[in-house]
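Dear colleagues,

As part of the handover before I leave the project, I'm documenting each prediction I ran so the next person doesn't have to rerun anything. This entry is a single chain, and its sequence is reproduced below.
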Amino acid sequence: MDISVTHPSADSAVVDVRGQLDIDTAPQLRGAFDGLREAAVTRIAADLSQLTFCDSIGLSILAVTHRYCVDSGGWLRLAGPSAFLTRLLTVVGIADAVPIYRSLAGALAGDSADLVPATVG
């Protein structure tokens, strides 16, 4: 798995996640999110458009990161997940709390027109 983090502003970040997110690679993503928490970044857009696999550990990391962001007055927004991952996020209930956008630009802007339909409402 490859992860890159960029900062459009002091309190926001884009986390680009590529490859497979599983028990072996989860510590990388957890470390990236922990680093953002230590830097007091509370608005995070996670670009999942190149994520090819995600297991329950990955889902847990997303849920914990969402809770931190919301509790700190910010947000976690997911961008571009595959249809399979979107369905998984919906089935386990994460999509009820974490908005899923078609594109990174839509996620960064909070553009309701770019929300994936399963997460609208």
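The longest strand covers residues 43-54. Helices lie at 26-38, 56-71, 83-91, 94-97, 104-109.

All the best with the project,
I.
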